[in-house]
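Annotators were shown the component list below and the corresponding predicted structure, then asked to write short factual statements about the assembly.
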Amino acid sequence: MKASTKQQTLVVSCPDSAGIVAAVSGFIADRGGLLVEANHHTDLQQSWFYMRNVIDMRNSDVSFSSFKAQFQEIAEAFQMQWSLRSANTRQKVVLLASRLSHCLADLLHRWQDGELECDIPCVISNHEDLRRMVEWHGIPFHHVPVDRGDKSAAFAKTLEITQRHEADSVVLARYMQILPTQFCEAYSGRLINIHHSFLPSFVGADPYQQAYDRGVKLIGATCHYVTEDLDEGPIIEQDVIRVGHNCDRQEMIRRGRDVEKLVLARGLRYHLEDRVLLQGNKAVVFS
Amino acid sequence: MKASTKQQTLVVSCPDSAGIVAAVSGFIADRGGLLVEANHHTDLQQSWFYMRNVIDMRNSDVSFSSFKAQFQEIAEAFQMQWSLRSANTRQKVVLLASRLSHCLADLLHRWQDGELECDIPCVISNHEDLRRMVEWHGIPFHHVPVDRGDKSAAFAKTLEITQRHEADSVVLARYMQILPTQFCEAYSGRLINIHHSFLPSFVGADPYQQAYDRGVKLIGATCHYVTEDLDEGPIIEQDVIRVGHNCDRQEMIRRGRDVEKLVLARGLRYHLEDRVLLQGNKAVVFS
Amino acid sequence: MKASTKQQTLVVSCPDSAGIVAAVSGFIADRGGLLVEANHHTDLQQSWFYMRNVIDMRNSDVSFSSFKAQFQEIAEAFQMQWSLRSANTRQKVVLLASRLSHCLADLLHRWQDGELECDIPCVISNHEDLRRMVEWHGIPFHHVPVDRGDKSAAFAKTLEITQRHEADSVVLARYMQILPTQFCEAYSGRLINIHHSFLPSFVGADPYQQAYDRGVKLIGATCHYVTEDLDEGPIIEQDVIRVGHNCDRQEMIRRGRDVEKLVLARGLRYHLEDRVLLQGNKAVVFS
Amino acid sequence: MKASTKQQTLVVSCPDSAGIVAAVSGFIADRGGLLVEANHHTDLQQSWFYMRNVIDMRNSDVSFSSFKAQFQEIAEAFQMQWSLRSANTRQKVVLLASRLSHCLADLLHRWQDGELECDIPCVISNHEDLRRMVEWHGIPFHHVPVDRGDKSAAFAKTLEITQRHEADSVVLARYMQILPTQFCEAYSGRLINIHHSFLPSFVGADPYQQAYDRGVKLIGATCHYVTEDLDEGPIIEQDVIRVGHNCDRQEMIRRGRDVEKLVLARGLRYHLEDRVLLQGNKAVVFS
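Structure shown to annotators:
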């Protein structure tokens, strides 16, 4: 639901132990905060604890910065990795695309419609095709062609533009290039890709052709964080759609587009709402 | 996941206010309890709070009964409706069936396979057909025929048998009779039905024929608590399956059976694991 | 899959009898036509037969018009309702919308992307809001406000514009007005609506609020032909999405949009590809 | 729908050419047959044609054997692979199982309930566990233990029992052994397995552990024909179910069972109704 501007989201992960919830919820209650939404997860195998709290501070006189500063004590006591985000703060999300328009058009419409709560400082593409669509939405478009012989200059420029726009997160909306390690590391845990297959099936090139050749009865899409290991990063969201013998590769591509769009939009939304907590190469998603 | 015998589940609902989670989780932590699973829900419209905690008491020296007695104070302070159940306690579930075997066979197999954590003291049916199946599972079978002219005697006897077996909950596994108000009230919030349509579509008789006549493209099933108002009780779980022009009523019945079985099994499981909290005529399900 | 321009689609329905397929397929083979896709359905209850043939005429020297003229004889012999459409002919589809943009934006993008094989001569709306979006796609936009006191003038004008553009079909992309009988009859079997519920559940106003109040676990959307009886016309396509206790009405609306878009796009596609054959108030859909 | 005893199913695949449907449907009509159900598929890439006709011979005086003999001429003209099965003939299906009961219990109940139209001459298992369940259904149970050191004797005996019972098809209902080439070849295209993952994901051992480790958001099951290449045979049916971070391996196994049961039952049904036509390593399924 729509976040009030007096809300803030606290996300925590730490070694499991008794008293974490008591300490955190006591801290919140003592400062007049009201829990609007709370999600917990205990990974018994790893003995690790994950928590997300959406806190209504309407009746509190503790400022965001004081709350944050004071929480540091608890965080240290429990060895927490944590973040606190105010509903007033919108993430800056840079989108990368190539020629295929469906994912980009879908994200831009959701953004324009007020569904995606973020700012989009710019779109970067290695092709010119989507400029008109992007600019119609009032968003700057940067064309950074990638030279097959030497891609490094293009990636450096892409990274430079992304950083210049102070991107909090980056979304690959069917961007058809493999980003270098440096880029992946710069945006570790904040670089989101949509892969057009139900991973780990059909990694690599042309998954729809692979799916057609294998004769699967469902095709899918996977939204995941990009890591150095191609198609191996933590999975945020997946879904599938039914196909049959009457679906050739073209028809699979057509049906697949609908899944790609939905899965990317859902995954990005989870990310923007701080619903995704990393657990090694896996993602805890409080969906 | 499989519950350890040192676990207990605390379920709470109460008017929303600051400090509930802090009070409850503090209470648990003070007694050496460890949160294994926690679900919260705040209904902002009704200003009502719902919580379910699975607590590991392995490292605690507070007994179940002491824990329960001591919790009373918090419960009163926050005007809670609440329950505490030990993983050692299995609910007694009486099953009612008629002639159709699929839901009953499915539940009995899951129970035999150790998937449904409950005791089944008996099965009651208004027909003899399923006796052999029930008794093969080692469960007593009671045949209580329902006389069309005067059903009250049969229902009284059914209620008497159910109460004699000290049933905690009752499941209507395609039991084809409408139970009287007295029965519904005696097991309010503990009487589970599977309706063979996607409610509120197709209430009343022969929903598959209704679905066929209307030409819908999906048929469904609904697991709900029975109230006096037929087919109107709180919904626990629903699901659907695709049908097409090549499905006549018989084929819809056939496909529908698979959804009925799954939805009933899932709904019952949520109920047994104390995942269902009533909210007027709606059910909060921590699935 | 993409239709070649030498393809034509023959759609037939008639009383069932022996020899229909033999006669039709013999007719096609005799003229050098090759069956690319064929769908049959026999409604045994109504004793009615439905058939759709996609025919490749690449190796035929029989023209479209000769084929059509010669087929008349068979059609009469079997009392067929039938149509023959060349892949060269694109339907003209007029879209009606109000203020909500998601369905319209989705259809326009699919059309621009080459996925929807039709022409869109214009969009008509009772509000100005969507003009900019429509015109950016190079499509004329007509604003026909509907006066609450007397709606007839607006509907007459809407019908006039639709007819002036020689619309083959009309799509209500969340058009929030109830069209008069005259309009429904003028485009009988060619007037497509998207209803934001899983019909027959929640007919009438604000189905998401109704769904919220009833506590259903899935919400849906229904694409159907509009008839005089509101929300009662033949269903072309339906789908659902899961919701839970954490979904208020706003969140249901948000999730529902994704189903509405998909279901309308699929339904329209079936219609454009002549996959929908009417059977009284039901639709045979060769999907 | 339930097949009348005067029905027969004709299944054909052959190189694509003009006139196949005309020839076959003419042949049927000439003999007084009425098409009850017809499915066609043209693989344009391979230029291959697939057809399934369910024919009502109620008004025909041509016997099954004459029909079959006379059809030979057409079959040769078009180089068809084909089969004709009378609705009077039920396939004999031998089931192989190990210790897990869910798939076997599900199939046996469907069979007992009249849903699976086949005979089950016996169940063979490498363990004793399921004897009582099988025998309760009135079906002979053969215990053929598999010696880890030398499995060949056990497989030879399993094959011998299967052949002695004149099995038309064999189903591996979570049979935990890899059958030797000889067995696979003896029942090529008639040996059905349920694999507990969404192939081609997670081939090999313990797919649920693999799925857990990879953090996928959906798990699945695959019904396929067994070939020499383990987990690589033609896929008949697949489906998935949603999982989340709160699902450990045990919970995945539990949820997965429901998908396994459904997918195997559907796949077997397609097979028994002659809806599955092989196309190299892929299966055309007229579902």
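Statements collected:
1. Chain D has a mean pLDDT of 95.
2. The longest helix of chain D spans residues 249-272.
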